[in-house]
Structure formats: structure tokens, C-alpha cells
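Q: How would the C-alpha cells look for this protein?
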Amino acid sequence: MSQLAPDGEVPVYDLVGVGFGPSNLALAIALTEHNAAATQPVTAQFLERQPRFGWHRGMLLEDATMQVSFLKDLVTMRNPTSSFSFLNFLHGNGRLVDFINHKNLFPLRVEFHQYFEWSAAMVDDLVSYGSEVVAVSPVTRAGAVEYFDVTASLDGGEQATYRARNLVLATGLRPSLPAGVTSGERVWHNSEMLHRLAAFGETDPTRFVVVGAGQSAAEVTALLHERFPRSQVCSVFGRYGYSPADDSPFANRIFDPAAVDDFYDAPDEVKRRLVDYHANTNYSVVDTDLIEELYRRVYREKVLGVQRLRMFNISRVAELVDTGEHVRVTVESLVGNGSTVLEADVVVYATGYRPADPLSLLGPTAALCQFDEQRRPKVGRDYRVLGAPQLRAGVFLQGGTEHSHGITSSLLSNTAVRAGQILGSVVATRQIATVPRQDRVASVLGVR
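A: Here is the predicted structure in C-alpha cell form.
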């Protein structure tokens, strides 16, 4: 599997990124800005299986807003003067004054996606779309892994191989469904929402069932109730009611760059407590405005005597049977109040995501990486996977590091800063200077 690497035989990139969502997009931008002033530019190539840039397209609902400030864009927290900022995007599109007059920190999700697309277009030369990574092979020299050969399957059926000193894995999240549930024509994960709805046209289904209690579940419930005025929408969740997200100033500090340092240095028990304490900033919570809007609709229908929006709280889906014409959903009360059988045209599971296993791409080489007792990768503060001495090529993770770096691992809040830290580490390890590595990283990042 491994092979010798005669110097100069194959072009070597300093960095190959697998996946091109917001995280690696932020890295491509940081790299571009670094290279503009660098005497020795960083060479890079990013590989993305989608035919073009896309971020949660199935949930780009018209009225949905971001849950983070626009200042937590792809660059501002790392470089406030960057030309890749959201504000510069607004200026270039003639909307800056209108956005300021809007007096809102939280743009529409659709608009932020437009910003991502605008940014991606400016670093398009670094990305190969329609390229799905199918293998990563170690390239050895004197018994040590010096490079990785990254093989991608292209849209036309051919393959291409890229040799890298460093891999940056940003393989994203995968839709999560309960055990025994599979996606189908009538059973969806909310990530497919807009693509699936397009098939209905002007037809109004009789009944939707939405499973889940988080932001996505509430958004889907509100959308279906509004878009299909003759349909019944049933929301099923185990809680007593939707829980509001804690976005208060002190709680929001858990998303600060400095909080990553605190979390990383904390003992495991403290890490667990911090996640438990601040879970209500991110997990299974809903914006207060949306909670109030859904309650207003439920109460309005109670007054009018027409109940289209039904809440099955403290409940779970006990059985799901596709009859061919409908899905028979058995909703069971968790407090012993019996069961209700619903005949639904569509069941939407808004049950979250799970991180992809980023190291699965490495194959047998993953055995050179270090893992903790729960088989989670051990990761340095610079997001580099720790490994055996013979693993000299770098493997960096963008995501999948919640256990080591905290809640922001899969969120946008720290994306810009993390990109700068990864790039700083890549540049520092390439430098020949004899100063200590820690000082070199600090120099690259512009901090002391």
C-alpha cells in the first residue's frame, strides 16, 4: 500500500483539503490572504464531491435567520480588515446601507449562503468540485509517512491523485435518524426538506408528522403549517415543550476563541460539565421568537375551533409502518396516557446530525494516530491529530473535535480563528528557522 517517494517525482501540495464547506472555505481564504504577502506561498488543493458550493441547501428556508452574528463570518474574527468579510459582500452587492438600517445582527440564512457562494467564487482556483475522495495512501521515506496520496473520483469516471504534506479533513456532518428508520419517499430527514417539497407542487398532503424538538424541527413545523393551509401538522417530541436557546451575553462566551483554550486545557470531568452546563446554547433548543409564533398559532386555532397544528409533547414515535399510500405513525405517551395512531402522508425527522468519521479515509494509516479510551482521536491545540513518531505528514481536523475543543467544533462561531490556527501550524512546521515551534506558530498568527 505504501510506496517510496523519490523527491521531485510528483508535485507535492503543502495542504490538501477534503471537503469544501464553510470550514475549509475559511481556510482557503486565510491561505489566499497569507500568500498575498508571503515569500514562500502555501500550495493547496481542496476536493469537494458536490458539483458546486452548497451549505445545507435543503434547509435554506425563506424566513430562517442565522443563529450567530454576521461578525462571525469567514474572516472577521481572524482578520477584521479582510476583503472577504460579510460587510464587504453586502457593499459589493449594494445592500450595505439597507442592512445597516435593518438593525439586525442575524442575517437571513439564504443571504449568508449567498455570502458563502460569493466567497467561494473568489477562491475557485483552489477547489476541484465533483471530486469525491475515495482513498488516502501513505507515502513513506525511510520508514516514515512523509506524504499522503489522495485519490479522488471525478464526475467523468476518471481518477486524480494529489500528494500532500498535510491533510485537512472537513468531511462535515451526516443526517441522523433513529434506529430502524430509513429515509424514503414518505420518510425524510429535514436536511432534504426543500428538495422533497418541490415534488408536491400545488398538492396539499392531508397530514405531516414532524419528529424533534430543536430549531430545525420548529422551523419545519412552522413552514409546513404555513405553506400547506389545508394540511394538518403534528409535532412529536419528548419534552414538555420547546426549550428556548440561551443566547445571553455571558452564556455566549462559551463560543469565544478563548473558551477553546479553557476547554482544551480542562480535565475531562470539567469538559463534561461545561458541555452539560451550556448545552442549552446549541442543542435541542429553539429561538424564542419562533416558540412564541408557534404557540400563537396553536392558541389562535383553539379560539377558531380548527386545529391544524397539534403538539404531541412528552411523547415518542413507537412504530412507523409504510402502507404504500400512507405512513402509519403510532405516537406513544411517555406518561402513560395511551397511544395515538396517525395516518401521515409524510414524516419528517428533525433529529440532528452525527459527525462523519474523518479518520476512516486514512485506512490502515489511522493505526498510527492516537486515540483516547472512547476511540476518539487525540488532537493537538492546533487541530492536528496526534500520532506515532513515524507519522510525519500532518492530519488536521475541521470538525469532530467537540471532545477536545468544545461546543464550537461543528459551529460557525470559531471558524475564522480555527482556519488561521491550522494555517499557522502548517506554515510553522514548514519553516526552517531554528526558533522554537511555539514561537513560530505565534509569529505566523501575529500573536505573542
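The two ends are 43 Å apart (CA to CA).

Residues 249-281 form one domain.

Upvote if useful.
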